[in-house]
Design brief:
- This protein is an all-beta fold.
- It folds into two domains: 14-84, no CATH class; 141-239, no CATH class.
- It is built from one helix and 16 strands.
- A four-stranded antiparallel β-sheet has the order 1-9-5-6, with no helix packed on it. It has a three-stranded antiparallel β-sheet with strand order 2-8-7, with no helix packed on it. A three-stranded antiparallel β-sheet has the order 15-12-16, with no helix packed on it.
- A hairpin with a 2-residue loop joins β7 (60-63) and β8.
Length: 239
């Protein structure tokens, strides 16, 4: 809705509790629901005394939660009401039960951003805020890909069926230990050993062994943490 001139002021309007006049007393405490309140200034109050609106500063002043009239009041005087206006320079505090779902966009009926907070501490809708949760226990880190041991610098040959090409892969690494454990420090020893011929026409002298743990596409694996120990068994070839 449009307005001519300055838009109406929005603030937290409060009517103070009734004040009983004390003969010969000028200062009184302002309360709302028996709780002291402190207006921003005398200009933020509407004060009626004996049916007449009082002029701020001239007829009364405000200091904290105390209103002081320009002269002592006498028996028979009546403070009709004191209404406190919200701070006109700030947004002000909304009155109780005046902020609706439409104003906050808490309720979401679609995939659009919005959050509905329920009485059972659950939520519905999608939140535009980032939330962080801490697990009660450490999550299990499990590899989702097959791992293989590869010996790059020897004279053996194998076949990588995933790639359909020759390879230097020696063995498939199980995702569990001999005891069935799937996380933590794993130890696995096959019940039967698998041997590959090195195809060496004469004795081999070992100086280095280039061992890798790779995926089926023979890229280096990144699933393992800590130290990995690989034990190889080498024997004379059997005819």
């Amino acid at each position: 809705m449009a307005y001519i001139g300055k838009s109406p002021t929005v603030g937290n309007f409060q009517k103070c509790d009734a004040i009983s006049v004390v003969n010969g007393q000028a200062g009184y405490t302002l309360q709302v629901d028996s709780v002291n309140v402190s207006p921003e200034s005398a200009n933020h109050c509407l004060v009626s005394l004996n049916g007449i609106l009082q002029a701020p500063t001239d007829s009364y002043t405000i200091s904290g939660s105390t209103i002081t009239f320009a002269s002592n009041l006498a028996t028979g005087d009546v403070i009709d009401f004191v209404i406190i206006l919200g701070n006109v320079l700030d947004l002000g505090v909304p009155s109780d039960a005046t902020v609706t779902n439409a104003k906050t966009n808490f309720v979401s009926t679609s995939s659009a951003a919005g959050l509905q907070i329920k009485g059972d501490n659950t939520t519905a809708g999608t939140s535009p805020f980032t939330q962080t949760y801490q697990s009660d226990s450490a999550p299990e880190m499990k590899s989702t890909q097959s791992l293989f041991v590869r010996l790059k610098n020897f004279t053996h040959n194998s076949v990588n069926l995933a790639k359909g090409s020759n390879s230097k892969i020696l063995y498939h690494v199980p995702a569990f230990s001999n005891t069935g454990q799937r996380v933590g420090a794993l130890y696995f020893e096959p019940a039967e050993r698998t041997y590959l011929k090195l195809n060496n026409p004469q004795d081999l002298y070992l100086s280095t062994m280039e061992l890798d743990i790779v995926y089926s596409d023979e890229t280096l694996a990144t699933d393992l943490q800590g130290k990995t120990t690989i034990v190889l068994h080498i024997r004379d070839a059997k005819m």
